[in-house]
């Protein structure tokens, strides 16, 4: 990394793609027209909101809040780990790697007109590291010891250890004004009690209005300070962005077909083939496209809660994996649109394959006595039911594993030595229950053949999230967001400490000294090669642990949209469909966009 003033950008490994003085990112249209109102539906499982604070544990934040906040740096979508100045116009990483100093662009100001200062940056970090922030947020900044105000426009982040990711983490931290939550009399609303107090940020959009906890409108800030920055050229082209939250997937899809909103990123294969059709598609008013992407798929699967004694034997967990008939699901329900996930880092070079490399062995060998010898061989191959394989053969293997673990079939059920039946619940939220019910029906039938009773329970999202935060579930479906350069977020997902912190990402409840050591190796990696070895080793250990019944992924973004929308000719490499639409698309006719309002 560069260590002198004048650094416009830094890279975790190697050099930034874009040179000094670049005019815009390759995947934007700098001449895109501005204007119009983009209307979107639920971007996730959220069906209502009750706060404007993204960073606290209780409650459900409104969608799109990140549009009003910015950070000192921003990444590009065609690189894996670079950071370009946004609020900051100079970046200096100390020669020992133990701190990074940012100089704030003198033009940067908040939505209330106040300049962005080093004191605001320090205030933001202090709040995000406090007990008032949600545990995953706190963990994200755990290795940043403090922010030091050098002068009104200069702030230094100091680190607990030398970690090449930390300067990027510091730069990507959302910055908000110290006046957020400040009452007229000078007293302050506690950070974790901020609800509908609008964030005071420096982003391109402001919250204009909201209603019924289901609709929120953002308006482009007419005084947005960063519109002419190279990292913002051709971006955020809509005058307004509106989110309408629907009660479930069925209502959301029907609303789109009725023309109530402008674009839909489709995650359900059946919908894409059978239900994203109708007169508006036939007329060309609505269109469908599949866009190539190079994102790692992340891990999506049935997560087992190891805090439940039922799931603590690895043979039991492997048996539950054997019972999922992906090939049948893909043929009968998914129209052969998906691929089976077989890694926590699938679709990237970070996926472990073949035998461990010398670098991986150097990390794994000290723990050989604590690891299954299979870890030192190839990664597990996911069960297959296509001929010559079969579900029956897989269930026979599963029955043998369960018997080894002390579970035998008698009196109409699979029982342990004390006669207790093998029963558990799969928890879901109601917004997606319609599409998950047929999937669960197949899985339940397979498990029933083993004598296992599985109940499927769908609850409203607020209760679902509350139960996840409290680790009050047996099994649920989770998708870990993909990352191109794994780092500290893996500690929240798999670290032993996070397993005991309610609201953390370690839903599995995994506590493993081996995993903890590999996580330390990931965050300490000084070269790309060292990082890859550490991630490969982690992938092997996690996959051989059978903590998740892996599900499936798509190698494309499926997007349906109104024909009034347009997008840049060059696609980014690493992106989410919804964020890409918001940040780089535009209306063909501007500024009215009348058909979309």
Automatic annotation (TrEMBL):
Residues 85-494 form the Solute-binding protein family domain. CDD domains: MbnE-like. Keywords: Signal. The keyword Membrane does not apply. The keyword Signal applies. Pfam families: SBP_bac_5. PANTHER family: ABC TRANSPORTER PERIPLASMIC BINDING PROTEIN, PERIPLASMIC BINDING COMPONENT OF ABC TRANSPORTER. This is Extracellular solute-binding protein.
């Amino acid at each position: 990394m560069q260590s002198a003033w004048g650094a416009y950008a830094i890279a975790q490994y190697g050099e930034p793609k874009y040179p000094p003085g670049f005019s815009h990112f390759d995947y934007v249209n700098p001449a895109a027209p501005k204007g119009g109102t983009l209307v979107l539906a639920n971007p996730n499982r959220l069906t209502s909101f009750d706060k404007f604070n993204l960073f606290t544990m209780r409650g459900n934040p409104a969608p799109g809040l990140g549009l009003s906040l910015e950070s000192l740096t921003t990444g590009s979508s065609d690189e894996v780990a670079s950071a370009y100045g946004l609020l900051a116009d100079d970046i200096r990483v100390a020669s020992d790697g133990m701190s990074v100093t940012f100089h704030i662009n003198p033009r940067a100001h908040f939505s209330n007109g106040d300049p962005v200062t080093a004191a605001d940056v320090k205030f933001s970090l202090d709040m995000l590291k406090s007990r008032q922030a949600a545990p995953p947020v706190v963990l994200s900044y755990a290795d940043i010891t403090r922010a030091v105000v050098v002068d009104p426009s200069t702030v230094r982040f100091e680190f607990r250890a030398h970690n090449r990711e930390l300067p990027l983490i510091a730069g990507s931290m959302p910055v908000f004004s110290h006046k957020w939550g400040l009452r007229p009399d000078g007293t302050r609303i506690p950070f974790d009690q901020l609800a509908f107090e609008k964030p005071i940020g420096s982003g391109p959009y402001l919250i204009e209005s909201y209603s019924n906890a289901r609709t929120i409108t953002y308006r482009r800030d007419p005084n947005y300070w960063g519109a002419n920055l190279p990292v913002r050229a051709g971006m955020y082209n809509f005058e307004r962005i509106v989110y309408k939250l629907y009660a479930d997937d069925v209502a959301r899809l029907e609303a789109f077909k009725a023309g109530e909103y402008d674009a839909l990123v489709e995650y359900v294969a059946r919908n894409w083939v059978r239900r994203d059709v109708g007169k508006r598609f036939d007329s060309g008013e609505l269109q469908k496209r599949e866009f190539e992407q190079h994102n790692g798929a992340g891990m999506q699967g049935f997560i087992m809660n190891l805090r439940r004694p039922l799931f603590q034997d690895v043979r039991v967990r492997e048996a539950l994996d054997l019972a999922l008939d992906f090939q049948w699901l893909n043929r009968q329900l998914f129209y052969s649109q998906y691929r089976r996930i077989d890694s926590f880092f699938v679709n990237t070079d970070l996926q472990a394959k073949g035998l461990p490399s010398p670098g991986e062995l150097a990390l794994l060998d000290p723990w050989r006595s604590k690891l299954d010898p299979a870890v030192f061989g190839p990664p597990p191959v996911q069960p297959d039911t296509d001929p010559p394989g079969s579900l029956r053969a897989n269930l026979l293997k599963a029955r043998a594993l369960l018997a080894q673990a002390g579970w035998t079939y008698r009196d109409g059920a699979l029982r342990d030595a004390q006669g207790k039946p093998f029963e558990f619940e799969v928890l879901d939220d109601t917004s997606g229950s319609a599409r998950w019910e047929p999937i669960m029906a197949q899985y339940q039938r397979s498990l029933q053949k083993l004598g296992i009773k599985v109940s499927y329970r769908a609850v409203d999202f607020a209760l679902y999230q509350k139960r996840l935060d409290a680790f009050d579930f047996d099994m649920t479906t989770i998708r870990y967001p993909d990352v191109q350069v794994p780092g500290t977020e893996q500690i929240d997902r798999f670290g032993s400490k996070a397993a005991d912190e309610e609201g953390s990402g370690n839903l599995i409840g995994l506590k493993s000294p081996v995993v903890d050591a590999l996580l330390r190796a990931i965050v300490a990696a000084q070269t790309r090669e060292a990082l890859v070895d550490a991630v490969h080793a982690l992938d092997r250990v996690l996959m051989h642990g059978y903590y998740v019944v892996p599900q499936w992924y798509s190698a494309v973004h499926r997007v349906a949209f109104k024909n009034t929308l347009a997008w840049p000719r060059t696609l980014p490499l690493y992106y989410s469909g919804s964020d890409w639409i918001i940040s780089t698309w535009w209306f063909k006719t501007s500024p009215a966009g009348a058909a979309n309002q």
